[in-house]
Structure formats: C-alpha cells, structure tokens
Amino acid sequence: MAVPKDGRQPSQPGRQDVVPYGPGTGLPAGNAGGEELVLADDPGRKNYTLSEVLDKVILGDALEVLPKIPEASVDMVFLDPPYFLQLPKKELRRWTVKTVVEGVNDAWDRFVSFEAYDAFIGRLLSLAKRVMKPRATIWAIATYHSIFRIGRLMQDLGFWILNDVLWVKSNPMPNWLGVRFTNATETLIWAVGDRRVKGYTFNREAAREFGMGKIGANVWILPICTGAERLKDEQGKKLHSTQKPAELLRRVILTSTHEGDVVLDPVAGVGTTGYVARQLRRRFIMVEINRRYVEGIKRRFS
Ligand SMILES: C[S@@+](CC[C@H](N)C(=O)[O-])C[C@H]1O[C@@H](n2cnc3c(N)ncnc32)[C@H](O)[C@@H]1O
After folding, report:
1. Residue from 254, 154, 149 nearest 201 by CA
2. What are phi and psi of 163, to 5 degrees?
3. Which of 151, 184, 231, 284 could be 274's S-S partner, Cβ–Cβ 3.0 to 4.6 Å?
4. For the ranges 65-74, 86-95, 171-180, which has the lowest average pLDDT?
C-alpha cells in the first residue's frame, strides 16, 4: 500500500478522533476570540512569530504547525509521540487478579505499518530539528514497542545521542497473560542536533539528585501518573491514556534547561510539559491535534 509522505493514511491515526477547529466549531482559527492559552492553527497562515506561539497550546497538526514556527527558536524539545503499541483487539485480563486491562487503543496510536510509523516520526523529528537552537537538546520517550526505531531515525537524521535514561516505574501496570516479564520501563533518549554541538545545557547537580545511586546514574525510579494528578473526563475516566507524571517532566526540564528557556512539545497530549515548564519558570510551545485534550489542558492551567 502506498504510504503518504507524512506516514499517515487519510483515515489513519490521530485523524479520526480529531475534532476540527476553525469556522463553526466554537474554537476560532488564529488567536481571535480572546483565547489566551490556546491558539487554533490557521491553515491560511504561512508562519507565526515567536511571540505569537510562546506560552501557547496550538490546536493543530504538528506536521503543519512546526514549519510555521521560526527556525532556531527553542532550547529544548520533549517528544512523547504515539507508541504504535499494536495491542490485540481481544479483551486482556490480568493473570493474577483477572481484572480487565485498559490498554492504549486510541486512534492516534494506530498506523498501518512500521513504514508508516517511521515516516511520521521521521518527519516530526526533522521538523523539530529545524526549530532547535544550535545548542538545544531533544528528549524522545517511548516503550520497547518503538524506542529502538525512534533511536535509529534520530541517528539517521544526524542527531547525536548523549544518553538514554531508563524510567523504571515503581507501580507498573501488572502483567496479564503471564507469558513474559511485566514491562516496567520506558526509555528516554536525550540528544543534540549534531555530534559537533558543544555547550548544551546539562545541570549536573540536578542529574545527580535524580539519577540512581551516589553518582546519579541514568536510571529514574518514579511512579506512573495516578490519583488526583490524572486528568479525568466527564465520566470520571482518565482523559488521556498516556498522561506522563509531572515528576518525569520536572526531571527532564531541570536537568536540561535554565529559567526562561523555551521548551517545545509538538505532541502535547494533556499538556504535562507546558504545565511543568510554567511551574519552573520556563516558556513553552505546545501542539496537540485533539481538541478534547486541549480542553483538558485549558482546565489544567486554570
Ligand atoms: C503519547 S501522547 C502524549 C502524552 C503527553 N506527554 C501527556 O503527558 O499528556 C501523544 C499525543 O500525540 C498527539 N498527536 C498525534 N498525532 C499528532 C499530530 N500530528 N499533531 C499533534 N499531536 C498529535 C495525540 O493526540 C496524543 O495526545
């Protein structure tokens, strides 16, 4: 099957569960209507000034929005893209307690093939690279389902990997069928845009404090996002299936940025990155395609 350049099928991921924006949707295109936090991407605009997008959540498709953001304008990128989990359609019951597993089965996580997934991630990474300042760094996070592909794509695009950081979940989702290890980790890749980059921000005291043992090794042990921190929908169910814990972002931001730096999250979900960035007195630019999540971000910020 021919795959479009951006890696997505016309009806594939992200697209189906996207509530459109602009005329007739109650959310204005552009920044009209007094929306302070949210800027709905205006398809008619070719570019935005930095001040237009700073401290904003842009409701739109990152592949269309990123090219409109000024080149070399951000100090750090946090990329938490779709995982392409490919979970089986059948109901999964836990091995020990027999409860049903609520896996990630969102439309935005579905791609027709690895080729399609790679094309999407490759495009996102290239667009992110264009907006990175020369000494900016980028973090990419995923599970074993896709982190190896993302790492390879990063290297092929010239990124230079500085570290991988292993997030060990102290409260992982229990295993269900009992046929393999319970997966309790996600991997973060931390990189610069090019191997010659020197002078990137690394706050080593923060790294030592967060890392494992006295030397601050590249292992972070912290729980997944649960309880009051987890954003809920109208039915009291979790609003986003993969909301990251604020503590993870706190560690990422404190180790790799200074106050006043600009942090970009092009696939923001319910906005954990910008939410923590603001608390830590950093600036942010977030992009998210799904209006429900953007509404969640608005609630979170208010
Ligand atoms: C793994 S989640 C990010 C979760 C986020 N870090 C948080 O803590 O809430 C990936 C997000 O990418 C969004 N997404 C997928 N394709 C996108 C696109 N083309 N442009 C913008 N957002 C997209 C999905 O809607 C989803 O919310």
Report:
1. 254
2. -160, 160
3. 284
4. 86-95
Percent of the chain past pLDDT 70, that is, above it, reads 82
Q: Does the C-beta of 255 come closer than 6 Å to ligand 1? A: no
Q: 249 CB under 6 A from ligand 1?
A: no
The residues spanned by each domain of the chain are 38-301
Assign 40 to helix, strand or coil.
Answer: strand
H or E segment to which residue 53 belongs: helix 50-53
Tell me the β-bridge partners of 238. 232
**From the alpha carbon of 141, which atom of ligand 1 is closest?**
1
CATH C-level class of 38-301: alpha beta
State the DSSP code for 32.
Answer: -
Q: What gap in Å lies between CA 249 and CA 144, rounded to an integer?
A: 20
Q: Are 150 and 81 in contact (CB under 8 A)?
A: yes
Q: What is the pLDDT of residues 239-266, one digit of tens each?
A: 999 999 999 999 999 999 999 999 999 9
C-beta of residue 291 within 8 angstroms of C-beta of residue 297 = no
* Centre of ligand 1 from the C-alpha of residue 244, in Å: 11
Residue 205 CA to ligand 1 center (angstroms) comes to: 31
Is residue 38 within 8 A of residue 298, CB to CB? The reply is yes
- Ligand 1 atom 2, closest CA: 269
